[in-house]
Amino acid sequence: MKKMLMLILSGVSALVLSGCGVETPDAEGWKPSQKEEFLTILETDKYASICNQQALYEKVKESENSKLMSKLLVSYAKNLANGCIDLESFNASQEKRVEQEIATYYETYLQEVKASDIMRKLKAGQSIEEILKPYVPEYAQFFDLQKRYKLLGGDKNTSKKTLRKIRLNIERLKLMKPGLGDNYALVNIPEYTVRVIDANGTAVSMAVVVGQRKMQTPVFSADLSYVTLNPQWGVPDSIARNEVIPKLLKDPNYLVNHNMVIRKSYDLNTPEISQDSVDWEAYLIEEEDKKEMTYKFIEVPSKKNGLGRVKFIFPNKHSVYMHDTQAKSLFKRKVRTYSHGCVRLEKPIAMLEHISKNYTNKSNEEVKEWYDSLETHHMGLSKKLPVHTAYLTTYVDECGELLVFNDIYGFDKTQRLNF
Question: Signal peptide position in this chain (predicted)?
Fold first, then answer.
């Protein structure tokens, strides 16, 4: 019995020493299983991130050289994290637009990808999927559009223009803010649509009006902070100069007819200023001698307020938010680029009900009482809800249908793929 036990132990030792069942990393840190896994990912370009590294991929596929494979892994992770759009040329085009006095903004949320971190994880034995996971977009659209891209890529009837459009939007999804979570609101600007999406899918969807071509709704992300019922509208200085003051000079009753008052600040509790006590012409002089805007126009809360009865605030430097509107007829139009950058909602009450029920501690009765009071109330959130204003000219909807939209701000033209 003792002799048999010694023979078994001897056999086990031989297996261990011979390396059977144990992977030995090569000098670069690659294990055979990691190489096999990476080559499988590359074969289908699972995360659409070979991009500008096609030549390197061909060398890797042919040689399986470990150093080349390491270089490609780092490049693949960077392309996955930060997309394959030529951002240098795009940023230059944005600067030219600003010079042309077009209000445009497109935030790109770039992630830091260090080669040393990638290689450390590789040498620690992590799988390639584990290494790439921090950079994979959480948006379901990333995978939905990829599936459609690969499917249509094999169809001879699909135009190159359509494929490029889909691929460009795949890259845009890489540039959106990471750390998405299960619940978020997505304003898709070219679609003129907002959706509130949770773990079960689309909970709320409605049409929106977005910014004019020269006063574009910016592309960015921010958390919804609070909801204002019966809001006042603090007219921005630019709108005051370009629209309100010229109309006031033509029609002395303009402010009364539009429920507007004048203050030294946007605080309604400060003393009111008489419109006749101010030389408004001084605020319309050309740039060099233009007088600083020291007065604020405020549209007071009412059923006829330009912001409607409710607005949804996600604080940002652009002073952009979602809100109700008096111009309901605009929702019947196919092209809905009419705002100064804010997002006007087709069904603000549906949005209010969903937000108050799922993201605040307020009861329906409390919300209704505040709403009916015609007085301004602010309702804070008890649960996080990120808001993303996005620019997706292709989108796979809730029925699995590929939707294609017009390039209303021209980003399809100014954003070039780097491959």
Answer: 1-18
